[in-house]
Amino acid sequence: MKLGLKLLQERAKVGSFWWPYIGNLPETYSVPIFFPGEDIKNLQYAPLLHQVNKRCRFLLDFDREVKRALVSLTPDKHPFGDQEVDASSIGWAMSAVSSRAFRLYGNKHPNGVHTDIPMMLPLIDMCNHSFNPNARIVQEQDTDSMKMQVKVVAETAIKENDPLLLCYGCLSNDLFLLDYGFVIHSNPYDCIELKYDGALLDAASMAAGVSSPSFSSPAPWQELILSQLNLAGEAPDLKVSLGGQEIVEGRLLAALRVLLASNMETVQKYDLDTLKSLDAEAPLGVANDIAVFRTLIAVCVIALEHFPTKIMDDESLLKQGASGSTELAIQFRIQKKSVIIDVMRNLSRRVKLLSSKETATAEC
Asked: What are phi and psi of 195, to 5 degrees?
């Protein structure tokens, strides 16, 4: 928020050097903190709703802190030229910074590590995002003036009138919407967050026809491995994910493999990295991986059922026409459902392949 407050200070300053830049910033932003209440609900995705509510609470709390700090100041010492600073203006500044600032290298620590510093870069911040950018930001120090220079350098041949494209990062649609106010179609880094829950996994495995699930009551040796995966113990991290580059988060995959394993001796032959890898070809046996993938497919079905609408309903709403924030909310939830469906298809292919291998082995 330091950069946001600096932006507000420059906006309030008469004759600010930065006014031509600030005056051309958008008056409003399409990030969820500015969505109408109904469109926040339209996101239909609990992890993002939590983040939106968290940011809104932060704005209200920060607004109170700023007001307390400014209440006793005389006009000549007021950092914002005696202009009122409220949750709305702070939200505007936070959105301007989150959607336009870049994290660049600051001073170097004695250990050689640079401090990351967010910076507003006029003109450069007009470049749009792409996972296949045609340019990149280069930061270097001018040897003559010793001043830091920031440049946009072409990565490929760029034709006249072609847009300059930078990669904002390998981010999920949650972060693109929260910080930038847009959603990427078929985002290869998008995923869904789930809570690791033994009861949920028991229900999913039974629905998938997997016998003898032990997710709610793991054996002591299984509990120990869950602790090593930070899915059990005093302060576990129960947030797991499906989708993205991993397809199945390694910790979740390893947990299911272990909990559906027939015996401890087989599991102990493999390290955690192997058990966490989707590329490891059935380390605990073909039957184990088939049971794991079927359970995960059932988890995906349960996750889809938590959305009150289906993709075809959402697409129909988009065809009927919707306001900017409503359209963004619908696009976001379509992409989340698409992630789940893509994971189901991927795992179904793996089950089919493993089943054919199991059949071939049995026939031999």
From this structure: -95, 130
